[in-house]
């Protein structure tokens, strides 16, 4: 596939999970594996590589499931990757998410000492995700994957999480998700935001020019790094009942309750953005993929339609910061792959039922530090860039203590006080999803 700058993407070598849109709705499964023997670990890689090759060569009509394979730094060490190659990975990947928790704001209830084991530990080596449009298709491909390691005694499944997307596309908070992903040059997907040029492929896939015109630092040898991408995996528990009670207690009626929720998120439950539908939900807009991401914030600098501190505006300010000479929002874009886990809390229930529910977030990009870590620390966990240093993202911002949330309105703004944490980090990993040729290289290592 050739991009607008005549850069050809080797789509046959890039794992499909990095660029391909997921089916909707879908069911999925995440598995984490530990490798206790180098030889059997490499045998596993060879088998998974063959499975991915089969998936790639299958006709589109026969492909009813999507498989992605990635490795932590500890996993690459367990495979016997040479030290020179290991040292060529960026520092944040080598350290791992748990070691960077303090900087990311994963403290207190979200601290690694409280994470779900073995997340954040040296025992996580391989991550395998399987997605399919229905349970039979999921079980079929999951069984094919299981057969690749079932007879390998030194390969252990140490963690499993089933997940899903509802037909409505909504998460446990009740809002449609997965709308604001960037258009990527050369991906083969139809652009959905006419107000923004597609982002350079090198922002997401290693080996291609990024928005600076340069190549992102790439692991060596070239065969290992090219066509790979970094994945940020996070399990986030959502306190849905507390979220609903907070809104109910501060609204005069149900209509205002829905408006306050939309102001926090930046969208209505249907997915309709406040930038296009500031006063009421428009389900037809939210359901239209050619319209629900086709907007900007340049005509709303004061945040009267969409608050500057709303979750979706913080995560992707679009053209809000064009006057800031030191900030180029195109350098901080990511591909987001969020999915739900656990039972949905029934509508209007305000009491916690004790169930574990939430969101599995996966972010893909070529620059862990200036994409995920920058957005998390500078835009979600801080309010300096919007002129409110003491405020955090009202949904996912790191705050052990309650924060405030300000909404511009005339004649006087409204400020919600003491917004409590609604999301708790249950664990996470930094992973590397290599290209198919790199998988073959890993499986054939003889060091």
TrEMBL record:
Provide ranges: composition bias, Basic and acidic residues: 278-293, 316-327
Its required cofactor(s), as named, are: heme b
Q: Which residues span the membrane? A: none
Does the record's keyword annotation contain DNA damage? no
- Matching InterPro entries, A to Z? Dimeric_a/b-barrel, DyP_N, Dyp_peroxidase
Question: Is Membrane among this UniProt entry's keywords?
Answer: no
* Annotated region (Disordered), positions in chain: 271-327
Q: Name one GO molecular function term.
A: peroxidase activity
**Superkingdom of the source species:** Bacteria
One Pfam family from the UniProt entry?
DyP_N
Could you tell me the keywords of this UniProt record? Iron, Metal-binding, Oxidoreductase, Peroxidase
- Tell me the ranges covered by the DyP dimeric alpha+beta barrel domain, including all copies: 58-135
The similarity comment for this entry is: Belongs to the DyP-type peroxidase family.
The record's NCBIfam families line, in alphabetical order, gives: Dyp_perox_fam
Name of the featured protein: Dyp-type peroxidase
Q: Which organism is it from?
A: Occultella glacieicola
């Amino acid at each position: 596939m050739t991009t607008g700058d005549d850069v050809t993407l080797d789509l046959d070598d890039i794992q499909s999970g990095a660029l391909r849109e997921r089916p909707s709705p879908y069911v999925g499964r995440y598995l984490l594996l530990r490798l206790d023997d180098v030889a059997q670990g490499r045998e596993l890689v060879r088998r998974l590589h063959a499975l991915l090759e089969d998936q790639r060569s299958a006709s589109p009509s026969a492909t009813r499931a999507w498989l992605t394979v990635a490795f932590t730094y500890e996993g690459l060490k367990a495979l016997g990757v040479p030290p020179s190659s290991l040292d060529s990975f960026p520092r944040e990947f080598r350290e791992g998410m748990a070691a960077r928790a303090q900087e990311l704001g994963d403290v207190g209830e979200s601290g690694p000492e409280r994470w779900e084991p073995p997340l954040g530990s040296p025992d996580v080596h391989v991550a395998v995700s399987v997605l399919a449009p229905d349970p039979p298709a999921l079980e079929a491909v999951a069984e094919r994957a299981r057969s690749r390691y079932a007879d390998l005694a030194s390969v252990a499944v140490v963690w499993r999480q089933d997940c899903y997307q509802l037909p409505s596309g909504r998460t446990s908070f009740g809002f449609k998700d997965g709308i604001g992903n960037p258009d990527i040059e050369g991906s083969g997907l139809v652009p959905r935001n006419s107000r923004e040029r597609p982002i350079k492929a090198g922002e997401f896939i290693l080996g291609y020019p990024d928005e600076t015109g340069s190549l992102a630092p790439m692991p060596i040898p070239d065969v290992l790094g090219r066509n790979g991408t970094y994945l940020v995996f996070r399990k986030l528990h959502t306190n849905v009942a507390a979220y609903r009670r907070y809104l109910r207690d501060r609204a005069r009626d149900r209509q205002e309750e829905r408006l306050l929720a939309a102001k926090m998120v930046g969208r209505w439950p249907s997915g309709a953005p406040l930038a296009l539908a500031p006063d009421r939900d428009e389900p037809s807009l939210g359901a239209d993929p050619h319209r629900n991401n086709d907007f900007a914030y340049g005509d709303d600098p004061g945040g009267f339609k969409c608050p500057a501190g709303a979750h979706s505006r913080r995560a992707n300010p679009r053209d809000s910061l064009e006057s800031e000479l030191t900030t180029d929002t195109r350098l901080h874009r990511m591909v987001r792959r969020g999915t739900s886990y656990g039972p949905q809390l029934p509508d209007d229930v305000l009491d916690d039922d004790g169930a574990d529910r939430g969101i599995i977030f996966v972010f893909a990009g070529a620059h862990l530090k200036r994409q995920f870590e920058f957005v998390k620390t500078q835009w979600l966990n801080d309010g300096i860039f919007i002129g409110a240093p003491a405020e955090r993202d009202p949904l996912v911002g790191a705050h052990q203590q309650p924060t405030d949330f300000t909404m511009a309105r005339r004649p006087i703004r409204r400020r919600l006080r003491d917004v409590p944490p609604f999301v708790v980090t249950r664990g996470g990993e930094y992973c590397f999803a290599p290209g198919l040729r790199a998988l073959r290289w890993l499986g054939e290592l003889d060091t």
